[in-house]
Structure formats: C-alpha cells, structure tokens
Amino acid sequence: MDSMREELSSLINNQTWTLVDLSPPRKGIRFGWVYKANKKGQEAVYRLKSRLVAKGHSQKPGIDYNDTFSPVGDKFILRFVLTFALRLECELF
Questions:
Q1: pLDDT for 36
Q2: Is the N or C terminus of the chain more exposed, i.e. has fewer CB atoms within 10 Å?
Q3: Tens of pLDDT along 71-87?
Q4: What angle do CA 44, 39, 53 make, to 5 degrees?
Q5: Is the bond leading into 25 cis (omega within 30 degrees of zero)?
Q6: Three-class SS of residue 6?
Q7: Which run of H or E residues covers position 35?
C-alpha cells in the first residue's frame, strides 16, 4: 500500500494527470497496477515498487483510440534514437 501511495503522490506532484468529468458515452481508460520487489542478494526484499499503467487495449475506435498513454521514458531509448537519427543524417525537430 505504501508503494502505491508513493506512486500516486508522485503522479500528482509531477502534474502527470488531471481529473476530468467525462460526458456520455465516454468512459475512462481502465488501469492496473504492476508490482516489483527489488532484491539485494537472494533473500531480503529491500524496496517494493508499484506502477500505475493504462490498459490501452480497452480503447475504442472513434472515441479514445488516438490517445497515447506513456508515463515513463528511458534515457537509453532517447540516446539510441538520437544516435540512430544522427547516423542517418536525419533532421530532428
């Protein structure tokens, strides 16, 4: 429960989301929790981590199908894309 509270407070503090009222027939995108236990060695759990994720498969064409939900980025991916674009001499906007 503490890791879930920590995740929710992080989302609110970073202004990652905004609560809005949906007009019919729209419904909110379903979500779920992903849990991970970071271990030190083979026995002791030293930190529990929770992530709130959108279930994109619940989107409906014509209503919310073009919306993209991606709350997390990775420095490795950004470096890879930039390096790839530079090697191909692509123009970055």
A1: 86
A2: C
A3: 556 777 788 888 888 88
A4: 130
A5: yes
A6: helix
A7: strand 31-40
